[in-house]
């Protein structure tokens, strides 16, 4: 490259820079919302900020946002009157027990950052329905909120099962559970898990039919069942299992307890007791 | 090389010209923001609220009364059920530009009942509800009317500014009063027609269950028909689509205190005339006014001795098997040209059993039905097939005519066997179950 070309290249560079800089406009406001900016925050919004967003940096979408949800499903938004009761109960029976046993920081770091609330269930084409789902450890979607009644313990437990289930996914997605968990019941996993009766699942060494879906689901179903059903509820299920099924479930339980202790420094049985007490208190 | 410099200089000059150019319409996002603000203002600026007519994908129409506030709140009444008609419900709304400027009803309200995928809420199919919407794109506004269209299922929503009097009537619950009035009128006057200027009687039918209105007349051997869903208003019914017969065009059918239906055409009132007799033959309104003929166990006018005897023979034979004969229902599907013959049997404990026979049918221009069994009976139907023979014999081998029969209480459907004129029977319109 001779001197002349270098000169030209430099000139070209300067010109290009001029071209760019000459068109920037420091006063331009690019921050115009496509959303309706006139909406005021109401009491529900303030409650969410105080109880979820400020302490744990969690956002709760209770108003309809179509893009947060499956666009090929028919769903409806929540009834406003359900938002605070549901989220109060969730805080008491999920956040508070973990905070008590693992500390504030644990929840601040690991809690999913977004809850999306949906009024109805989400029906699948095979007749099953989705009660909750989690995405990349960041977002948890809760369905069927419009049917929420605090004192309806089975329904509350079903919802909490979903939350503890999804939160357990987040935990194992950030730090994997020991591989030998996958080798306890390797042949029992199936895509048509929903054809399994509870008793059959227990006898095969699975705590719920859904645990048969995959090893990850198996792992988090163990955690959520043990936490939400409490010690007695869990033991009752094991009591109905066959001897071989029970032995397999005990092996899985041991791995879960060890995982919580070694990976997160949480005494799982203590957490189980705290959660159980919290559920009893919250559903009164 | 020189050329390049000229280009660059020219580029700089051109690229920066924008600064001095007064924009004619503003930037897209500013314009969208302004549009949303304008629409919102329009919704809020209705002191007596809005009448809303929503036509979900599964058919029929629903009436709403909505008042929008500056704080993003909407209060509504609806004619979905008795509660919705009288208890105002408050929820939130917002405006958002998605593909198009849209109105979102973003927390649960009466509107969402129609969309609810849980079939226990209002019916519809599981996972789909009534294929209705609660996010709507603005299509057009004209005077006091805003036309919107659902973003997910495309169901049309029409908002019309209510007058003070209409607002008051809606809050008072006049919608249900009128609805009851129309149901009562329809019971007394099953047949109404419009007298057209060319001397024809144009049949008007109101299917109150499906919430559809039809205008029909006989043309050669078939029925020329226009059908459209409707929603109740405080003064009658509002049709989703305009109905036209020659020079008569209307979108609303009014119902007044004198208990008369009428339409307004060019400022003139044309009454719907109640008729003591059917206006079009029964076989032509199959699938429009009714799909099922239900033959009860208790005798109806229009039964021949031969049928009455057959019914008794069947009943006695079934009693041997521990059940008694209840209704026999003929459920027609005019689209597929099939007819399901359902035999209901009642057991001693009050429970019902069903035997089902499947027929395909053809219909001649003058209304003669020929049935052909297309599936061998199974289950209960097979179990009682021999007992049912005195009845099924005619369906398996003969043709039938179906006609109106006037009784003291109104009308029933009468089926007459063509080959065996002494075999005829009648049934009520609509399933008894």
Task: Summarize this entry quickly.
The complex is a heterodimer of chains A (284) and B (433). Chain A is of the alpha/beta class and 284 residues long.
Tell me about this structure.
The complex is a heterodimer of chains A (284) and B (433). Chain A is 55% helix and 7% strand. Chain A is α/β, with parallel strands linked by helices. In chain A, helix 5 (153-174) packs across helix 7 (215-240). Chain A is globular and about 90 Å long. Chain A starts with a helix and ends with a helix. By secondary structure, chain B is of the alpha+beta class. Chain B has helices spanning 2-15, 28-44, 82-86, 110-113, 119-122, 164-172, 174-188, 305-320, 379-383, 385-397; strands spanning 50-54, 62-68, 73-78, 89-92, 94-97, 101-104, 135-142, 145-150, 156-161, 192-195, 201-207, 212-219, 222-232, 236-245, 248-255, 261-265, 268-274, 292-295, 323-333, 338-347, 352-363, 368-375, 399-407, 410-417, 424-429. The radius of gyration of chain B is 29 Å and the shape is elongated. Chain B starts with a helix and ends with a strand. Chain A binds chain B through residues 8, 11-12, 15-16, 18-19, 22-23, 25, 32-40, 42, 62-66, 71, 73-80, 119-125, 146, and chain B through 1, 4-5, 8-9, 11-12, 15-16, 18-19, 29-30, 32-33, 36-37, 40, 70-72, 91-92, 94-98, 104-108, 112, 115-118, 126-129, 131, 134-135, 151-152.
Helix content of chain B: 10-25%
CA radius of gyration of chain A = 25 Å
Q: What's the assembly state of these chains?
A: heterodimer
Give the averaged pLDDT of chain A, no decimals: 87
Mean pLDDT across the residues of chain B is: 88
What count of helical segments of chain A does DSSP give? Answer: 9
What is the strand arrangement across the widest sheet of chain B? 4-3-2-1-9-8-7-6-5
Strand content of chain B: 35-45%
- Stretches with pLDDT under 50, minimum 5 residues of chain B: none
The counted number of beta strands of chain A is 6
Order of helices and strands of chain A: HHEHHEEEEEHHHHH
Strand content of chain A: 5-15%
Task: Please give the most extensive interface between any two protein chains, plus how many residues each contributes.
Answer: A-B, 42 and 47 residues
Q: So what's the overall shape of chain A?
A: globular
Whole-angstrom Rg of chain B:
29 Å
Adjacency order of strands in the biggest sheet of chain A? 1-2-6-5
Q: Which structural class is indicated by helix and strand composition of chain B? A: alpha+beta
Distance between the amino and carboxyl termini of chain B = 90 Å
């Amino acid at each position: 490259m001779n001197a002349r070309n270098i000169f030209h290249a430099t000139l070209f560079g300067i010109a290009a820079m001029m071209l760019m800089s000459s068109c920037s406009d420091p006063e331009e406001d690019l921050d115009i919302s496509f959303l309706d900016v006139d909406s005021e925050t109401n009491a529900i919004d303030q409650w969410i900020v105080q109880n979820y967003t400020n302490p744990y940096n969690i956002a709760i979408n209770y108003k309809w946002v179509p893009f947060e949800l499956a666009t090929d499903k028919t769903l409806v938004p929540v009834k406003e009157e359900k938002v605070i009761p549901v989220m109060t109960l969730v805080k008491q029976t999920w956040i508070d027990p973990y905070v008590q046993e693992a500390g504030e920081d644990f929840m601040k770091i690991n809690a999913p950052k977004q809850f999306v609330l949906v009024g109805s269930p989400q029906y699948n084409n095979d007749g099953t329905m989705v009660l909750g789902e989690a995405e990349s450890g960041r977002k948890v979607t809760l369905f069927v909120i419009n049917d929420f009644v605090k004192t309806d313990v089975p329904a509350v437990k079903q919802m909490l099962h979903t939350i503890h289930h999804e939160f357990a996914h987040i935990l194992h997605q950030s730090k994997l559970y020991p591989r030998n968990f996958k080798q306890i019941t390797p042949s029992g996993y199936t895509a048509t898990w929903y054809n399994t009766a509870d008793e059959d699942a227990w006898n095969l060494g699975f705590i719920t039919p859904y645990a048969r879906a995959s090893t990850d689901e198996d792992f988090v179903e163990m955690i959520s069942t043990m936490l939400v059903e409490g010690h007695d509820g869990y033991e009752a299920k094991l009591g109905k299992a066959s001897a071989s099924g029970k032995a397999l479930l005990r092996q899985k339980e041991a791995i879960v307890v060890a995982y919580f202790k070694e990976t997160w420094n949480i005494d799982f049985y203590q957490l189980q007791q705290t959660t159980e007490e919290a559920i009893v208190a919250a559903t009164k | 090389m020189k050329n390049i410099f000229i280009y660059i200089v020219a580029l700089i000059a051109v690229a920066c010209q924008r600064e001095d150019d007064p924009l004619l319409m503003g930037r897209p996002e500013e314009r969208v923001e302004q549009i949303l603000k304008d629409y919102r203002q329009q919704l809020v600026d209705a002191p007596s609220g809005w009448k809303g007519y929503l036509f979900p994908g599964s058919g029929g129409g629903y009436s709403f009364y909505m008042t929008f506030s500056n704080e993003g709140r909407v209060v509504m009444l609806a004619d979905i059920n008795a509660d919705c008609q009288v208890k105002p419900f408050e929820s939130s709304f917002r405006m958002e530009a998605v593909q198009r400027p849209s109105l979102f009803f973003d927390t649960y309200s009466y509107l969402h009942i129609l969309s609810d995928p849980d079939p226990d809420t209002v019916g519809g199919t599981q996972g789909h509800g009534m294929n209705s919407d609660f996010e709507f794109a603005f299509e057009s506004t004209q005077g006091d009317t805003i036309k919107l269209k659902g973003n997910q299922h495309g169901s049309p929503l029409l908002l019309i500014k209510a007058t003070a009097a209409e607002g008051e009537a809606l809050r008072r619950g006049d919608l249900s009063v009128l609805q009851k009035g129309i149901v009562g009128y329809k019971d007394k006057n099953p047949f109404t027609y419009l007298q057209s200027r060319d001397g024809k009687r144009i049949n008007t039918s109101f299917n109150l269950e499906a919430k559809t209105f039809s205008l029909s007349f006989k043309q050669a051997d078939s029925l020329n028909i226009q059908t459209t869903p409707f929603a109740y208003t405080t003064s009658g019914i509002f049709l989703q689509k305009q109905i036209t017969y020659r020079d008569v065009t209307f979108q609303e059918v009014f119902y007044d205190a004198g208990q008369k239906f009428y339409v307004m055409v060019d400022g003139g009132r044309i009454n719907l005339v109640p008729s003591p007799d059917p206006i079009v033959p029964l076989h032509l309104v199959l699938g429009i006014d009714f799909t099922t003929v239900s033959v009860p166990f208790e005798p109806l006018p229009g039964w021949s001795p031969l049928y009455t005897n057959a019914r008794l023979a069947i009943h006695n034979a079934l009693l041997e098997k521990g059940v008694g004969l209840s209704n026999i229902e003929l459920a027609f599907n005019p689209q597929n040209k099939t007819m399901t013959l359902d035999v209901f049997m009642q057991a001693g404990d009050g429970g019902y059993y069903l035997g089902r026979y499947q027929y395909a049918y053809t219909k001649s221009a003058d209304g003669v039905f020929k049935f052909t069994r297309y599936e061998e009976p199974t289950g209960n139907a097979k179990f009682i097939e021999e007992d049912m023979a005195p009845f099924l014999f005619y369906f398996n081998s003969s043709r039938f005519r179906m006609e109106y029969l006037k009784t003291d209480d109104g009308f029933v459907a009468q089926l007459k066997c063509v080959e065996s004129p002494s075999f005829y029977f009648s049934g009520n319109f609509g399933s008894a179950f």
